[in-house]
Write a structure and sequence with these properties.
This protein is α/β, with parallel strands linked by helices. The chain has a domain at about 165-305 and about 325-359: Rossmann fold (3-Layer(aba) Sandwich), CATH 3.40.50. It has 18 helices and 9 strands. A hairpin with a 7-residue loop joins strand 5 (about 275) and strand 6 (about 285). One of its GO terms (biological process) is methylation.
């Protein structure tokens, strides 16, 4: 049965529905035999493989080209597949086919899951991730930056833009971005600028800065269909936040960044903002001047809101030694980095916007 839920439904009702949804899942878990549940969860990797395979075969596009009217036997004949249909067309405004295609990187990283689980408990100083173990010792972001992996990096960058399709447009709708309409706004590790571009289109007086690795910035014009020299962008900034100081700004924005890093590195990144860059653009950090009072906005999915986030948590562990965090874990990280949490806004769909100021 399908229910039509009004987009006007208030947030209290929505949070109740979320709670009941997890109760139903919990009930299912209690009623079904444990062997069935274990087998069902275990075979989850097959579902990902099938979905990824169908996306590669462009099954959704084939169905669409036929006017969306193909029965299962026609699909089977045209594509040579025997699986069910899938609505994942390349040109769909809410497509997330690139995230699905990332299955290759994600599944190769989980190859060393057992090693990684041990790493978390036995040897916390060991930095090599499960992903690096599967890729000749090269960490994920470095691996994507290799010229030979340009195609894979494009898939990753497009996939990050597709986060809006997965989590809905809640982040855009349920947070008041207009308060920054006249501010300088650095999207730290903003990928190909998909989020920033939409923000600047809504608020053209905002001075947007896109900061990311050089190879990602170079790809951004192609992927986001925009020019970084457009009036919408103030400028783009190529760098590594562990080495190159972030440009001075009123607001720093991090979306889906902290979960890519273990606590130690996450603290380094957060601390780096409070070190003002030198005027001659050298790579050395300077003490923050007393009048520097930036605001930090962190968009993450909190485990408090989505208790079933364990798949993503496991994935972050295997890919980057990262993790999904609760609100109190993020609060603790912030205090250790010289910041103080002031407000959290839950945006329907998944993301929360955490507002932070210097301690
Ligand atoms: C999970 S993606 C998030 C992208 C974007 N914030 C978004 O939500 O669409 C992580 C981003 O961090 C960038 N990144 C990773 N390590 C970095 C570093 N050392 N310095 C700057 N950017 C980095 C990657 O290139 C990538 O674009």
């Amino acid at each position: 049965m399908r229910f039509r839920i009004s987009s006007q439904l208030n947030l209290t009702v929505l949070s109740r529905i979320r709670i009941y949804k997890y109760d139903v899942i919990d009930l299912q878990r209690r009623l079904l035999p444990p062997t069935y549940l274990a087998l069902n969860e275990w075979s989850g990797f097959l579902v990902s493989k099938i979905i990824c395979g169908l996306t590669k075969l462009e099954v959704a596009d084939i169905i669409k080209a036929q006017g969306g009217k193909m029965n299962i036997y026609e699909i089977e004949k045209t594509t040579g597949t025997k699986e069910d249909k899938l609505m994942l067309c390349k040109d769909h405004p809410n497509t997330f086919r690139n995230i699905i295609l990332l299955y290759e990187e994600y599944s190769s990283a989980t190859q060393y899951l057992a090693y990684d689980l041990k790493l978390q408990t036995d040897n916390e100083n060991e930095q090599v991730t499960s992903f690096a173990k599967a890729h000749d010792g090269i960490e994920a972001f470095e691996w994507w930056a290799l010229p030979v992996n340009k195609e894979r990096q494009e898939i990753f960058n497009k996939g990050m833009i597709e986060q809006d399709s997965i989590y809905g447009k809640g982040l855009h709708q349920y947070y008041d971005w207009s308060q920054y309409r006249n501010a300088t706004f650095v999207d730290v590790a903003g990928g190909s600028g998909g989020f920033l571009f939409q923000l600047l289109t809504r608020y053209p007086t905002m001075k947007g800065v896109l900061y990311d690795h050089p190879s990602v910035i170079e790809m951004s014009e192609k992927i986001s269909n925009i020019s970084t020299h457009d009036h919408t962008y103030h400028y783009s900034y190529k760098g590594d936040f562990f080495i190159n100081p972030l440009p001075p700004s009123d607001v720093y924005f991090f979306r889906s960044i902290l979960h890519n890093w273990p606590d130690e590195q996450a603290i380094k990144i957060l601390k780096s903002i409070l070190c003002y860059p030198s005027t001659n653009a050298s790579s050395s950090y300077h003490e923050v001047p007393s009048n520097f009072n930036p605001k930090l906005l962190i968009a993450e999915i909190l485990i408090d809101d989505l208790p079933l986030l364990y798949q993503l948590d496991t994935l972050m562990m295997c890919m980057y030694n990262g993790k999904e965090r609760t609100k109190s874990e993020i609060t603790e990280l912030l205090i250790k980095s010289g910041w103080k949490l002031t407000k959290v806004t839950y945006c329907k769909g998944g993301f929360s916007v955490i507002e932070v100021v210097p301690l």
